[in-house]
Amino acid sequence: MLDNKATQLTSITSNHKGLLEYWANFYFQIHVLGSPTATIEAKKRDLNLFINFFQASLNSEIIDLWTPSITKAFQGYLLYEAKNSLNKPYKATSVSRIMATLKHFARWVHKEKPFVTGYPFQGVRIIEIEEPRWNGLSD
């Protein structure tokens, strides 16, 4: 899990390079820190949510076990089972944002160290949010 101190990594050494948490911390340091506070907090929540799901689902932290089926299962979990901090189901817009964070993270990891099983978003359809219809004043 990402450390509560947004500016520090949890204790990691080179022998942890095969672990999801190592890569999440590395990504966080490179791509998230320096962003506005709200962005940092949102991305930290998003990544921790996935790390917890991954560890609970696979009973493992080995990043190369991340496959498209895990990504799809996580999206389903967000849509139908998970609850937010207010103990309410996530809205589609929140699920879309969480999945966008995760997709950017996965793309970056895959570029740095290709996944043994392939890109974990391969063939995964992210839910699409419909643009609201204009209900303004008519002419």
Automatic annotation (TrEMBL):
**InterPro entries listed in its UniProt record:** CB, Integrase_recombinase_N, Integrase_SAM-like_N
Write down the Gene3D superfamilies for this protein, in alphabetical order.
1.10.150.130
Looking at the record's lineage, which domain of life comes first?
Bacteria
Q: Which PROSITE patterns match?
A: CB
Q: Which GO terms describe its molecular function?
A: DNA binding
**Lipoprotein recorded as keyword:** no
Cite the entry's keywords alphabetically. DNA integration, DNA-binding
- List residues of the Core-binding (CB) domain: 14-110
A biological process term (GO) from this entry: DNA integration
Q: What is this protein called?
A: Core-binding (CB) domain-containing protein
The scientific name of the source species is Candidatus Jidaibacter acanthamoebae
